[in-house]
Amino acid sequence: MSATPTAAPEPLDPAHSGPGDLVAGPVPLREPAAAELARVAARAAGDLLAPPAPVRLGDVVPAPERVVPDPTADFLLPADAAIRVSADPAALAVGEQLAALLRPATGYPLPVTDAPRPEPAGGIALALGDDDLGPEGYRLDVTAAGVRVGAATAAGLFHGVQTLRQLLPAAVESATQVAERWVLPGGSITDRPRFGYRGAMLDVARHFFPVEDVLRVVDHLARYKLNHLHLHLTDDQGWRIAVDSWPRLATVGGVGEVGGGPGGYYTRADYRRIVAYAAERHITVVPEIDLPGHTNSALVAYPELAPHGIAPARYTGTEVGFSYVDPASERTYDFVSDVLAEVAALTPGPWLHIGGDEAFKVKGEAYTGFVERVQRIVAGLGKTVVGWHQIAPAGHADGRVLQWWGTNGDDPATAEAVRRGARLVLSPGNHAYLDMKYAPDTPIGHDWAGLIDVRRAYDWDPGAHLAGVPAEAVLGVEAPLWTESVTSRAEIEFMLFPRLPACAELGWSPRTGHDWAGFRERLAAQGARWAAAGIHYHRSVEVPWPATPLHP
Ligand code: TNX
Question: Does ligand 1 have an atom closer than 6 angstroms to the CB of 36?
Answer without folding.
Answer: no
